[in-house]
Design a protein that fits this description.
The chain is an alpha/beta fold. The chain is built from seven helices and seven strands; from the N terminus they run βαβαβαβαβαβαβα. Helix 3 packs parallel to helix 4. The protein starts with 8 loop residues before the first strand and ends in a 31-residue tail after the last helix.
Length: about 300
């Protein structure tokens, strides 16, 4: 650990498991005090339509793994579908941790359905999770970051938000129907770039990080086709960390993909506890050719 984020406070949403937990671990390993948040401290049923399967992972487990590695973490429960809880979250973080320097918008759920079959309730929830929540949390965090003289906002995107390869495949993911999810992720990419331009003079960096392929997490495993080659979560967590290392004048407005960006820039990728250097991992040939390796 090089303590590059010492004295920084980071909020990572959706950090009871999966990508959010991995990002929280990696930031904590570099010295940040990480506030982790999810709907509940205990495992809960899936947020997908009709979901009744309890997904493994809890905030208490995230706290335990961070503290076991020597990091500092605090937890707050917040249901980002509840406007009151969502709008109060940043204020609660500031009160609990004394401020906020880093915001990682990760929370969400992918509820796939073909357009003709998707309910408006699912459509609205997808927009709320992936666009309204990042907007609301960034809006609330900006004044606090500006007052501290700097800040870093990282939004988690998706390779589905990139133009699909042609010719179009006959079938998509296992359940198919990722059009609305992908559309919101494309909006997150553009939101990140536009907000970066708005906040450059405030020294608040805004970047977007996405998997180059797919990451198998407790919440997303059922959406990944059998035999599809997934990538280790450590490479995404490292890419998020890289977006929190430099000022806005040096690094902002990027849409960076977790295998492409470290490979292209020759960056060292470490384990989630920061103690082990992982092998360089080249993006696979089957990755979407429309990804920009540099993140530009």
């Amino acid at each position: 650990m090089d303590a590059s984020l010492e004295n920084k406070v980071a909020l990572v949403t959706g950090s009871s498991r999966g990508i959010g937990r991995a990002v929280a671990q990696r930031l904590a390993a570099e010295g940040a005090t990480v506030v982790v948040t999810a709907r509940s401290k205990s495992p809960m049923p899936s947020a997908r339509s009709g979901g009744n399967q309890v997904v493994s992972g809890s905030l208490d487990e995230t706290i335990e793994v961070i503290e076991a590695a020597g990091g500092r973490a605090l937890s707050l429960t917040a249901n980002l579908e509840d406007p009151g809880e969502r709008d109060e979250l940043i204020g609660r973080v500031v009160e609990l941790a004394g401020g906020i320097d880093i915001l990682v918008n990760n929370a969400g759920f992918a509820d796939y359905a073909r357009v003709e079959d998707m309910s408006f309730d699912t459509f609205d929830r997808t927009i709320d999770h992936y666009l309204r929540a990042p907007f609301a949390l960034a809006k609330a965090a900006i004044p606090h970051m500006r007052a501290r003289g700097a800040g870093w906002i990282v939004n988690i995107g998706s390779v589905t938000g990139v133009s699909p390869r042609r010719p179009f495949p006959d079938a998509g993911m296992v359940r198919g129907g990722d059009v609305v999810y992908a559309s919101t992720k494309a909006a997150v990419h553009r939101f990140s770039q536009g907000l970066a331009a708005e906040l450059l003079r405030d020294n608040i960096a805004v970047n977007c990080v996405a998997p180059s392929t797919a990451i198998s997490t407790p919440g997303a495993a059922s959406l990944i086709p059998d035999g599809y080659e997934t990538e280790p979560v450590e490479y995404l967590a490292q890419t998020v960390l890289e977006m929190c290392r430099q000022s806005a004048s040096e690094r902002t407005g990027l849409v960076a993909f977790s295998l492409h960006y470290p490979w292209h820039h020759g960056l060292e990728v470490r384990s989630l506890d920061g103690r082990t250097v992982l092998p360089r991992r080249e993006p696979p040939e089957f990755a979407n050719p429309n990804i920009s390796p540099s993140g530009l």
